[in-house]
């Protein structure tokens, strides 16, 4: 399957979560067995030469994609969770949202310092969450090899923000607009 055929499997939900937003929903793609397998294959192929030790997936759809990609690459998986979801000792980072703040956390010592990590999520929009995850992982000593997304919304500038922060980034599909 090509990126264009995968795009046809992504639903667009108008005015969600608020008026004017065109929400790109990958759950319809995930429900298509061939489409899901093709997406994972394309994403894993994009990262195969990076020789990563771990794939870090951002909650929640990043878990679905990241765990499958980690398996395809023979790498471990690290969940980047919202605050209060992980048992035991955690490290976290607060970051700004359009309407307030949020927090991401990982287990303290989840990976050794210097580990090569691929950061994965389903979609990059403004980049706030991905930037926070990258900073959190780097703060724990990770070497981020790349940030990889199923979908980029380039009009919102998130991918450019990651690249400006020195993090190579790539997406399988792009959609114009918000």
UniProtKB/TrEMBL annotation:
Ranges of residues in domain Phosphoribosyltransferase: 33-143
Pathway noted in the entry: Purine metabolism; AMP biosynthesis via salvage pathway; AMP from adenine: step 1/1
Top-rank EC class of the record's enzyme: transferase
Keywords for this protein: Cytoplasm, Glycosyltransferase, Purine salvage, Transferase
Any single GO BP term: purine ribonucleoside salvage
Family matches, as HAMAP family: Aden_phosphoribosyltr
Protein name: Adenine phosphoribosyltransferase
Organismal lineage: Bacteria, Pseudomonadati, Pseudomonadota, Alphaproteobacteria, Sphingomonadales
Recorded name of the encoding gene: apt
